[in-house]
Amino acid sequence: MAVELTDEKRLERAVRSLRNFIRDKKELNTLLLGRFESNDEELRQAIISALIDWNMTPPMIGAVGLANHPNKHLLIHMAALEALGSAGIWHSREHMPSADGGTSGDDHAKAGEYSGWIERLYSDYERKKSDLKTAINIASGMDSMGLSSEYASMFAIYGEIW
Length: 162
Hints:
Layout: H1 7-21, H2 40-56, H3 72-94, E1 98-100, E2 103-105, H4 111-141, E3 156-157, E4 160-161
Antiparallel strand pairs: 1-2, 3-4
Helix pairs in contact: 1-2, 1-3, 2-3, 3-4
């Protein structure tokens, strides 16, 4: 018997999937003294922004949410871009190299790397999103007689169904 998930539970699971995708784990963040780089509220906002992006991009094929997004991987992909973009802006603002006794350091010298990742991931995301939305639009115009897309729905990410 399947348990119906609430929107809040879906969002919690999506945040965990996003955190796994961007590898924002306390044990990996040694420069951040074992803290998350992004808090749960920031990741929730990234997921909501990714949903808005999907829903506002033509062709308009009907609004979706976490429960019925046609491709969870693409949703997490865009949410990662939102989260990395936000972190990149923060690192740019906080960038202030320091030096003392011949040693220098700057734990915010990441903006360039973030920008590079965002650019590569964004073009890949936009291509896949456009292909999928086009395939869905064509299939709906054919009254569901179209072939399924290679970007078919993915409901389980990192072992979690949401």
